[in-house]
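Re: the request from the purification team.
They wanted to know what the chain is likely to look like in 3D before they choose a buffer screen. I agreed to run a prediction and write the result into the notebook, where they can find it.
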Amino acid sequence: MDGLSAMGMLSPYRVLDLATERGVLCGQLLGDMGADVIKIEPPGGSPARRLGPFVNDEPHPDRSLYWWAYNRNKRSITLDIDRPEGRELLKRLVPAAQFLIESFNPGDMAARGLGYETMAALNPALVYVSISAFGQDGPKASYADADLIIMAAGGPLVLTGDDDRPPVRLSVPQAYLHASADAAVGALAAHHESVRSGRGQHVDVAAEQSVALATQSYVLAAPLGSVEARRMSGGVKFGPLDIPLVWPAKDGYIALTFLFGSALGVFTRKLMEYVCARGFCDEATRDKDWIAFGDQLFSGAEPLSEFERIKQIVMNFTRSHTKAELLQLAVERGFLMTPITTIEEVVKSPQLESRGYWRTLEHPELGRRVTYPGPFAKFSATPLEYRRRPPTIGEHNREIYCGEMGLSEAELANLAERGIV
């Protein structure tokens, strides 16, 4: 492995990561690619450390699994940027950095004298990334936020839950993960320009817009006058049709695309030919025009009761097979279905094991090794490396303040005593 591969593609660059729980994934993505990410936390630790679950159900800022999930490959220093001395220390770090990430409420950094214009004056090439709920400006910029609010405002929430009651949030917060991933891409695009021209810029990422993209174009149905999709437990309502997306198997559930039209009807036809051959339906059902069947349902040429009858046929077929058997059929015959796996099945997946996906990091302060989900992509020349476990609070204060910034031990001790670091 050559030197560049050993260090990672972003190893020459430094990231100042001031993000709260809203944007911590962004810095981790850059860190996985080799960047030196300095996680800047308030004394006492980031609020993300207070989010559970915790190792052995023991609440502690260094045992938060949420923190562990999004903060590997980072070094941690503590710094109170609400104090003048803290702000000056942060400014001393800016000239040597290529990226700064923050996810405070819009205007909060500028109110501290740490906004983009101020930082750009210290380092014109700096890429300054802001992650917020609704963006840095506009009538909703100051609105309160939560994952539920953002997913509702951006559109995806309309499809989550049962059709006879209000929508519900997803079990794991998603909005700021979408925003953080978009922020990382935006940061790299801006950095590419900075390397070319020497000019940095402010990258403004709104989680509402990020999750709107995650609707996979359904958000465009209303302005285009198309039929809008609506929620249904285990599926989606499309006009008068209740379309299941989750189907029962003998030992769990599968995801099956059973739809019509020129793009998907060909797959439905192949499935129904096999279902008929296995004795689950008659030839008349098998030979329906699966390309035009959706239009026939909408026009009334085929009654909705017929669609319900056919869904029951397909359900009888899927529940007579195990998930593994259905997956094998999908591979062999080109059916659009795949098992819905449990967490245990994911952990034991032969596919993920064969690709070396799971990684182990040492946590010496706990006296144990911990298995982590693997890299988000495989790079042939510059593979992603897990160089560091998530840091403990202020773990690298001495290393950075004294070793890199030149503070004396006495100065660092004085700053700690006064609660600035």
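For the purification team: The two ends are 39 Å apart (CA to CA).
Please add any questions underneath this entry.
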